Amino acid sequence: MTSRISPLLTDRKQLLAALGRTDQADMVVIGGGATGLGVALDAAARGLSVVLLEAKDFAKGTSSRATKLVHGGVRYLAQGNISLVREALHERSALLRNAPHLAAPLAFVMPSYKCWETPFYGVGLKAYDALAGKDGLGATRFLGTRQVKELLPGVSDNGLKGGVMYWDGQFDDARLALALARTAARQSALVANYCPVTQLLYENNKIAGVQCIDSETGQTFTIRSQCVVNATGVWVDDLRNQDANHQGQASESLVSPSQGVHLVVDRDFLPSNHALLIPKTADGRVLFAVPWLGKVILGTTDTPRHDLALEPTPFDSEVDFILSEAGKYLAKKPTRSDVKSIWVGLRPLVKASSSQGSTKKLSREHTILTSESGLVTVTGGKWTTYRSMAEDVVQQCLAQGLISGTAHSVTKNLRLVGAPKDNRSRNLHVHADLNTYGSESAWVQSLEGAETELLPGLTEAMVRFAVRYEYARTVEDVLARRSRWLFLDTFAAQQASERVAQILQEEGIEQPGLSDFVSLCQQYSFS
């Protein structure tokens, strides 16, 4: 086992200096999304030396574009995938326990417009409760028409017959990813964003490490390790192809990407702390209306997509579908002019050789493969099960002799950076505030600009904290993932972007990427 690498480093110059001193690690993880960060944390918490390298920013891809739900998966229960649902329900409990400042229970109301729907779905959701067992968040309730209208003001009452209420959870995905990165760093992992891997290294046709480059300075680094984990989400096949080409082999694609579109509207479309769930829309998909950070998220689609754009855009048919379906169930019907932000995530669904047609039928369960050279690839799964996925990856690396160390994972009860001692869950229905930072809120408040608010829930001090202690390097990092304003209200985010860029420059970042962010805002709006 290689000696631990370094104490917590967030200053960019110090981080790169540490990377330059690190020529050997027990494990190199490629990819700074939910899965890669989870793997890095699990391995580092076992005492292994770990380097994680992310080409862009942490959670830049799919991991910041989820539906913000921590859930067992009602849809998978309907498909009969009991084991996946049970695992996810238990992982839901662990996530809520370990990051109460970033995740909280959320009640869902499923309105019924046909007489059979309440008993039919209610019985299924009672089974959902039973699978959760002691990890349940609340009992499923059958509701009358009046109760549904009280819990969901703004729901259409045309033909309403009653409904069912059940419990799941919601979270702030990008900030949870950031908490994973910072917690891994506290466990002495070296985590670096904007450091793409440029080459896999081999000795005797076996994986021996990686070369990477700092995107800002062009400085290159070589990290030796016989354990390299490919956790690049929908892009895992790129590294798998490189590895196969080195072996003189062909590589079949592992991932069949699915695109999920989300539209954000003002809270007055659904002025409630409860989420709306429609279990079966016109084409058999699930529709959500989720209160989140002072807005309402409408979504999501599940559309096959074959190009792997870093910033995927929605198809017009997807936007029309969400607006049309939402309009059937909301008294106030949303239109394109009501949309404050639109964002798209690519799900890394594991390809099944026998699968035909829609990606809705492909597996959300994760897959771990080890190539002949020893490259370990993990993909699939979902945010809720990131921790168990990570544990499985490290266990497989141990079983195959790629690393040595303890076989016991400690992350099930490992609280993340910022978790408050009182375990009080944050209210994720309202705009972000200091509660976002949990136990670090006083630290944030002590910085310059704590009383100067740029947007609701975003102060100058928070921007400085993002640069100094949260790895932020660009305006986009701050307004998309340290705060979530790009995902909430694109126009508001753009209005604040110039001052954010100035603060980044005051903090020593010469190129904060203001023009790039303004261009990005156009992709997140219909204007």
Can you describe what's shown?
- The protein contains 16 helices and 21 strands.
- Helices cover 33% and strands 21% of the residues.
- By secondary structure, it is α+β, with helices and mostly antiparallel strands.
- The longest helix is centred in the N-terminal third of the chain and has 17 residues.
- Helix 2 packs parallel to helix 7.
- About 2% of the residues have low confidence.
- Among the domains are: 183 residues, FAD/NAD(P)-binding domain; 91 residues, 2-Layer Sandwich (D-Amino Acid Oxidase, Chain A, domain 2); 90 residues, no CATH class.
- The N and C termini lie far apart (54 Å).
- The strands form four sheets. Strands 3, 4, 5, 6, 12, 13, 14, 15, 16 and 17 form a ten-stranded mixed sheet that branches.
The helix-and-strand class reads alpha+beta
Q: Would you state the CATH class of the domain at 12-62 and 175-254 and 362-413?
A: Alpha Beta
Largest sheet: 10 strands, mixed
The helix tally amounts to 16
Q: How many strand units?
A: 21
Give the terminus-to-terminus CA distance: 54 Å
C-alpha Rg (nearest Å): 22 Å
Q: What is the arithmetic mean of pLDDT?
A: 93
Which architecture of the domain at 12-62 and 175-254 and 362-413 would the CATH scheme give at its second level? 3-Layer(bba) Sandwich
Strand content: 15-25%
The named CATH superfamily of the domain at 12-62 and 175-254 and 362-413:
FAD/NAD(P)-binding domain
The backbone outline, from C-alpha atoms, is globular
What would the CATH topology of the domain at 12-62 and 175-254 and 362-413 be?
Answer: FAD/NAD(P)-binding domain
Low-confidence stretches: 354-362
Helix content: 25-40%
